Amino acid sequence: MGIINEFIKGSSRVMIATDVAARGLDLPNVHLVINHDMPENIDDYYHRIGRTGRAGQSGTAITFVNQSTTYSVLKELKNVLDE
Asked: What is the dihedral of CA 11, 49, 23, 35, to 10 degrees?
């Protein structure tokens, strides 16, 4: 758990994580989330990018999309963004 403490304290500014970090960790002051790949369902996407908007904070989420990304999840994302 050393790297997580370093990230929380600010001595490490970058953390690379799996989906475990999306749901299992409460990390303050996350300003940028980069998704290497678009999750297969929209709920996982919300959990991943939710790291940037906790407790009134704002941030940026960047998600890479490729040919393996399903149309259905992209359609759901478009609907959310249109709202």
From this structure: -80
